[in-house]
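Retro notes
What went well: the complex prediction finally ran end to end.
Inputs used:
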Amino acid sequence: MQLKMWVLSGAALVLWLAPLTALDKKVGWHKSAQGLSLVAAVACAVTAGNIARFLSEQEEIEAIKTRAITADVVDEIAVSAYVSQAQRQQEAEQILNPVEALERALALPDAEVERLEPIAQKQLAEPEQNGSENGESERTERIHQLQALGWGKAKIILEIWGVTKGGSPKYKAAEAEYKRLTEGG
Amino acid sequence: MRAMYLANYFVAGCIASSFLGWVASLHPMAFRAIAFLAAASFILWGLCWLLDFSVSGWLKISVHNLQALLLAGLASIAIGAGVFLCS
Protein backbone atom coordinates (compact mmCIF):
# COMPACT_ATOMS: atom_id res chain seq x y z
CA MET A 1 0.00 0.00 0.00
CA GLN A 2 2.76 2.38 1.00
CA LEU A 3 4.90 1.34 -1.98
CA LYS A 4 1.97 1.98 -4.30
CA MET A 5 1.56 5.44 -2.82
CA TRP A 6 5.23 6.28 -3.34
CA VAL A 7 5.20 4.99 -6.91
CA LEU A 8 2.07 7.00 -7.74
CA SER A 9 3.55 10.14 -6.18
CA GLY A 10 6.73 9.76 -8.20
CA ALA A 11 4.77 8.99 -11.36
CA ALA A 12 2.65 12.11 -10.85
CA LEU A 13 5.72 14.32 -10.59
CA VAL A 14 7.39 12.69 -13.61
CA LEU A 15 4.24 12.87 -15.76
CA TRP A 16 3.80 16.51 -14.79
CA LEU A 17 7.33 17.81 -15.33
CA ALA A 18 8.93 15.55 -17.96
CA PRO A 19 6.54 16.18 -20.91
CA LEU A 20 6.39 19.93 -20.22
CA THR A 21 10.17 20.29 -20.25
CA ALA A 22 11.10 17.65 -22.87
CA LEU A 23 8.39 18.10 -25.52
CA ASP A 24 7.84 21.03 -27.87
CA LYS A 25 4.50 22.86 -27.60
CA LYS A 26 4.57 23.80 -31.27
CA VAL A 27 4.50 20.19 -32.47
CA GLY A 28 0.96 18.85 -32.60
CA TRP A 29 1.42 15.36 -31.20
CA HIS A 30 3.83 16.68 -28.52
CA LYS A 31 1.09 18.99 -27.31
CA SER A 32 -1.38 16.13 -27.23
CA ALA A 33 1.07 13.99 -25.29
CA GLN A 34 1.53 16.82 -22.79
CA GLY A 35 -2.21 17.07 -22.25
CA LEU A 36 -2.59 13.32 -21.78
CA SER A 37 0.34 13.11 -19.39
CA LEU A 38 -1.05 16.02 -17.34
CA VAL A 39 -4.41 14.27 -17.01
CA ALA A 40 -2.63 11.06 -15.98
CA ALA A 41 -0.47 13.00 -13.54
CA VAL A 42 -3.54 14.53 -11.84
CA ALA A 43 -5.08 11.08 -11.55
CA CYS A 44 -1.88 9.64 -10.04
CA ALA A 45 -1.51 12.48 -7.55
CA VAL A 46 -5.14 12.25 -6.39
CA THR A 47 -4.93 8.45 -6.03
CA ALA A 48 -1.68 8.73 -4.09
CA GLY A 49 -3.28 11.38 -1.86
CA ASN A 50 -6.27 9.13 -1.18
CA ILE A 51 -4.01 6.21 -0.27
CA ALA A 52 -1.90 8.42 2.00
CA ARG A 53 -5.04 9.71 3.71
CA PHE A 54 -6.26 6.16 4.28
CA LEU A 55 -2.90 5.16 5.78
CA SER A 56 -2.87 8.27 7.95
CA GLU A 57 -6.32 7.41 9.33
CA GLN A 58 -5.16 3.86 10.03
CA GLU A 59 -2.17 5.21 11.95
CA GLU A 60 -4.46 7.43 14.00
CA ILE A 61 -6.73 4.48 14.82
CA GLU A 62 -3.71 2.42 15.89
CA ALA A 63 -2.50 5.27 18.09
CA ILE A 64 -5.95 5.53 19.71
CA LYS A 65 -5.97 1.76 20.32
CA THR A 66 -2.52 1.91 21.92
CA ARG A 67 -3.61 4.78 24.18
CA ALA A 68 -6.77 2.88 25.16
CA ILE A 69 -4.80 -0.27 26.01
CA THR A 70 -2.29 1.72 28.07
CA ALA A 71 -5.08 3.46 29.97
CA ASP A 72 -6.77 0.11 30.57
CA VAL A 73 -3.59 -1.42 32.00
CA VAL A 74 -2.99 1.58 34.25
CA ASP A 75 -6.57 1.41 35.48
CA GLU A 76 -6.25 -2.32 36.18
CA ILE A 77 -3.06 -1.78 38.20
CA ALA A 78 -4.68 1.02 40.18
CA VAL A 79 -7.75 -1.11 40.93
CA SER A 80 -5.65 -4.10 42.04
CA ALA A 81 -3.58 -1.84 44.33
CA TYR A 82 -6.75 -0.40 45.83
CA VAL A 83 -8.28 -3.86 46.31
CA SER A 84 -5.16 -5.28 47.96
CA GLN A 85 -5.01 -2.30 50.30
CA ALA A 86 -8.67 -2.78 51.23
CA GLN A 87 -8.04 -6.50 51.73
CA ARG A 88 -5.10 -5.81 54.07
CA GLN A 89 -7.20 -3.36 56.02
CA GLN A 90 -10.00 -5.91 56.32
CA GLU A 91 -7.58 -8.58 57.54
CA ALA A 92 -6.15 -6.18 60.11
CA GLU A 93 -9.66 -5.40 61.32
CA GLN A 94 -10.43 -9.11 61.57
CA ILE A 95 -7.36 -9.63 63.73
CA LEU A 96 -8.20 -6.69 65.99
CA ASN A 97 -11.94 -7.22 66.26
CA PRO A 98 -12.03 -10.21 68.68
CA VAL A 99 -10.02 -8.25 71.21
CA GLU A 100 -12.29 -5.26 70.83
CA ALA A 101 -15.35 -7.44 71.14
CA LEU A 102 -13.96 -9.01 74.30
CA GLU A 103 -13.20 -5.63 75.80
CA ARG A 104 -16.69 -4.48 75.00
CA ALA A 105 -18.17 -7.69 76.43
CA LEU A 106 -16.39 -7.04 79.69
CA ALA A 107 -17.45 -3.41 79.78
CA LEU A 108 -20.95 -3.40 78.36
CA PRO A 109 -24.26 -4.53 79.98
CA ASP A 110 -25.78 -7.99 79.36
CA ALA A 111 -28.11 -6.95 76.54
CA GLU A 112 -25.23 -5.53 74.57
CA VAL A 113 -23.13 -8.61 75.32
CA GLU A 114 -25.83 -10.90 73.94
CA ARG A 115 -25.86 -8.87 70.76
CA LEU A 116 -22.09 -9.03 70.36
CA GLU A 117 -21.67 -12.67 71.39
CA PRO A 118 -22.38 -14.36 68.05
CA ILE A 119 -20.04 -11.95 66.23
CA ALA A 120 -17.25 -12.56 68.71
CA GLN A 121 -17.78 -16.32 68.57
CA LYS A 122 -17.57 -16.28 64.80
CA GLN A 123 -14.46 -14.11 64.78
CA LEU A 124 -12.80 -16.26 67.40
CA ALA A 125 -13.64 -19.44 65.57
CA GLU A 126 -12.13 -18.25 62.26
CA PRO A 127 -8.47 -17.71 63.14
CA GLU A 128 -7.88 -21.27 64.35
CA GLN A 129 -5.84 -21.84 61.24
CA ASN A 130 -3.29 -19.22 62.23
CA GLY A 131 -1.31 -21.65 64.39
CA SER A 132 -0.98 -22.92 67.89
CA GLU A 133 0.52 -19.69 69.31
CA ASN A 134 -2.59 -17.74 68.50
CA GLY A 135 -4.74 -20.69 69.61
CA GLU A 136 -3.85 -20.40 73.27
CA SER A 137 -4.43 -16.69 73.51
CA GLU A 138 -7.71 -17.06 71.67
CA ARG A 139 -8.82 -19.81 74.07
CA THR A 140 -7.92 -17.62 76.99
CA GLU A 141 -9.90 -14.75 75.53
CA ARG A 142 -12.81 -17.06 74.88
CA ILE A 143 -12.70 -18.37 78.43
CA HIS A 144 -12.71 -14.82 79.78
CA GLN A 145 -15.56 -13.96 77.56
CA LEU A 146 -17.64 -16.95 78.67
CA GLN A 147 -16.76 -16.28 82.28
CA ALA A 148 -17.98 -12.75 81.83
CA LEU A 149 -21.22 -14.18 80.57
CA GLY A 150 -21.50 -16.17 83.78
CA TRP A 151 -20.73 -19.60 82.39
CA GLY A 152 -19.36 -22.32 84.66
CA LYS A 153 -16.14 -24.30 84.26
CA ALA A 154 -17.76 -27.52 82.97
CA LYS A 155 -19.81 -25.62 80.43
CA ILE A 156 -16.79 -23.67 79.23
CA ILE A 157 -14.73 -26.88 78.85
CA LEU A 158 -17.59 -28.43 76.92
CA GLU A 159 -17.84 -25.35 74.73
CA ILE A 160 -14.12 -24.99 73.98
CA TRP A 161 -12.66 -28.50 74.16
CA GLY A 162 -15.85 -30.40 73.40
CA VAL A 163 -15.56 -32.88 76.30
CA THR A 164 -18.22 -33.58 78.90
CA LYS A 165 -17.62 -33.53 82.63
CA GLY A 166 -16.34 -36.81 84.08
CA GLY A 167 -13.22 -38.76 84.93
CA SER A 168 -12.04 -39.31 81.38
CA PRO A 169 -8.39 -38.49 80.57
CA LYS A 170 -9.55 -36.03 77.89
CA TYR A 171 -11.60 -34.11 80.41
CA LYS A 172 -8.74 -34.10 82.89
CA ALA A 173 -6.35 -32.79 80.26
CA ALA A 174 -8.86 -30.13 79.23
CA GLU A 175 -9.43 -29.17 82.87
CA ALA A 176 -5.68 -28.90 83.44
CA GLU A 177 -5.30 -26.66 80.42
CA TYR A 178 -8.29 -24.59 81.51
CA LYS A 179 -6.66 -24.06 84.90
CA ARG A 180 -3.34 -23.20 83.30
CA LEU A 181 -4.95 -20.69 80.99
CA THR A 182 -7.14 -19.05 83.62
CA GLU A 183 -4.40 -18.86 86.22
CA GLY A 184 -1.72 -17.84 83.68
CA GLY A 185 -3.98 -15.23 82.04
CA MET B 1 1.74 10.12 6.52
CA ARG B 2 -0.56 13.10 7.02
CA ALA B 3 2.08 15.38 5.48
CA MET B 4 2.36 12.96 2.57
CA TYR B 5 -1.32 13.11 1.72
CA LEU B 6 -1.38 16.90 2.02
CA ALA B 7 1.68 17.08 -0.26
CA ASN B 8 0.01 14.80 -2.80
CA TYR B 9 -3.10 16.95 -2.92
CA PHE B 10 -0.92 20.03 -3.23
CA VAL B 11 0.92 18.45 -6.20
CA ALA B 12 -2.43 17.50 -7.70
CA GLY B 13 -3.46 21.17 -7.48
CA CYS B 14 -0.22 22.24 -9.19
CA ILE B 15 -0.69 19.73 -12.00
CA ALA B 16 -4.34 20.73 -12.42
CA SER B 17 -3.38 24.38 -12.84
CA SER B 18 -0.70 23.37 -15.39
CA PHE B 19 -3.39 21.42 -17.21
CA LEU B 20 -5.66 24.49 -17.26
CA GLY B 21 -2.74 26.45 -18.73
CA TRP B 22 -2.33 23.76 -21.35
CA VAL B 23 -6.07 23.97 -22.15
CA ALA B 24 -5.76 27.76 -22.41
CA SER B 25 -2.94 27.40 -24.94
CA LEU B 26 -5.09 25.29 -27.30
CA HIS B 27 -7.38 28.06 -28.62
CA PRO B 28 -8.04 31.78 -28.04
CA MET B 29 -11.57 30.99 -26.88
CA ALA B 30 -10.24 28.46 -24.41
CA PHE B 31 -7.78 31.09 -23.23
CA ARG B 32 -10.64 33.53 -22.61
CA ALA B 33 -12.62 30.91 -20.77
CA ILE B 34 -9.67 30.01 -18.56
CA ALA B 35 -8.90 33.71 -18.00
CA PHE B 36 -12.51 34.25 -16.91
CA LEU B 37 -12.29 31.22 -14.63
CA ALA B 38 -9.02 32.48 -13.15
CA ALA B 39 -10.51 35.95 -12.54
CA ALA B 40 -13.59 34.46 -10.88
CA SER B 41 -11.42 32.21 -8.75
CA PHE B 42 -9.25 35.13 -7.72
CA ILE B 43 -12.30 37.20 -6.69
CA LEU B 44 -13.69 34.23 -4.77
CA TRP B 45 -10.32 33.73 -3.11
CA GLY B 46 -10.20 37.41 -2.07
CA LEU B 47 -13.72 37.24 -0.66
CA CYS B 48 -12.88 34.10 1.30
CA TRP B 49 -9.76 35.77 2.67
CA LEU B 50 -11.72 38.87 3.74
CA LEU B 51 -14.71 36.96 5.15
CA ASP B 52 -12.62 34.25 6.75
CA PHE B 53 -14.61 34.05 9.99
CA SER B 54 -17.96 33.68 8.21
CA VAL B 55 -16.61 31.21 5.66
CA SER B 56 -14.87 29.11 8.33
CA GLY B 57 -18.15 28.88 10.25
CA TRP B 58 -19.98 27.89 7.09
CA LEU B 59 -17.39 25.23 6.19
CA LYS B 60 -17.12 24.16 9.86
CA ILE B 61 -13.33 24.45 9.95
CA SER B 62 -11.07 26.72 11.98
CA VAL B 63 -9.95 30.09 10.64
CA HIS B 64 -6.32 28.92 10.65
CA ASN B 65 -7.20 25.89 8.55
CA LEU B 66 -9.14 28.04 6.10
CA GLN B 67 -6.24 30.47 5.74
CA ALA B 68 -3.83 27.58 5.26
CA LEU B 69 -6.14 26.11 2.62
CA LEU B 70 -6.40 29.44 0.76
CA LEU B 71 -2.64 30.01 0.83
CA ALA B 72 -1.92 26.45 -0.28
CA GLY B 73 -4.43 26.82 -3.14
CA LEU B 74 -2.88 30.10 -4.24
CA ALA B 75 0.62 28.62 -4.07
CA SER B 76 -0.37 25.53 -6.04
CA ILE B 77 -1.99 27.63 -8.79
CA ALA B 78 1.05 29.91 -8.93
CA ILE B 79 3.51 27.00 -9.06
CA GLY B 80 1.49 25.07 -11.66
CA ALA B 81 1.04 28.10 -13.92
CA GLY B 82 4.67 29.07 -13.45
CA VAL B 83 5.90 25.59 -14.42
CA PHE B 84 3.70 25.60 -17.52
CA LEU B 85 4.72 29.10 -18.60
CA CYS B 86 8.45 28.54 -18.01
CA SER B 87 8.59 25.19 -19.81
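What we learned: Residues 2-86 of chain B form one domain.
What to try next: split runs per interface for comparison.
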